[in-house]
Hints:
The protein is α/β, with parallel strands linked by helices. The chain has one domain: Flavodoxin domain (Rossmann fold). 41% of the residues lie in helices and 15% in strands. Helix 1 crosses helix 7 (168-183). Bound molecules: flavin mononucleotide. Flavin mononucleotide binds at residues 9, 11, 13-16, 83-87, 123-126, 130, 157, 161.
Amino acid sequence: MKITVINGTEVKGCTYHIKEEFLAPLRGGHEVTEFYLPRDMPHFCCGCKTCFVQDTARCPHNAQVEPIWNAVIEADLIVLTAPVYGLGIPAGLKALLDHFCVRWMVHRPDPAMFSKSAVVMTNCIGAGFMAKSSQRDIVNALSWMGVSRIRRLAIGLLEGVIWDELSDKRRSNIIRKARRLASKHAHIRPAGKSLKTRAKFLMCKGMHKAVLKNEETPGADNRHWLEMGWI
Ligand SMILES: Cc1cc2nc3c(=O)[nH]c(=O)nc-3n(C[C@H](O)[C@H](O)[C@H](O)COP(=O)(O)O)c2cc1C
């Protein structure tokens, strides 16, 4: 099975260590591909909308975005990790997710996304609920791209921000949580479409049908929906 990891930071800090603890039991049995941001996709979306109205291949940042997207599509499990910055996610990860907006169900979803599993991991110096609420942009993106099975790990470090300086008790508590989450992915089975995903898909289908009625020639989004046989 394939695991694609998108690391929302290049720092080898708490985010990295928590992710490594999660991956440790999985590395033997699965093929892991990792990307680090902003190193592997250092651009902000410039808002040209070329992906929406023409083709993703014409995005000015396609050379960096496409390999990551291809690895996402090939993966059985997608892992996104991030430290909390300003109660949200680091700009590098948000920038990548912005480039994925064209893959949302309101535009051109890839059917491969409907059977994928995802894990979202965040940590912060504050409380766990802050780490959890910071995941909103990631979970929204995954959900609108069609991923139904999203598991989450949100860690409030509280004691400090240096992994090796955390107390043994806290560190082993975090490791236990990461390993417990990993054990749920020892065997990665295709996920089914959840009720929420079905509802979003039906809503988008209705929207695309309505738009198609007023198009002389179908736009890029509707060409995709027609090719997929969805409308
Ligand atoms: C720019 C910046 C903004 C941050 N904002 C928050 C925040 O809003 N809330 C919080 O609890 N921690 C915040 N932190 C702390 C980090 O989330 C925390 O140190 C995390 O463990 C960093 O992960 P790392 O060791 O992988 O870099 C911030 C850190 C940085 C560098």
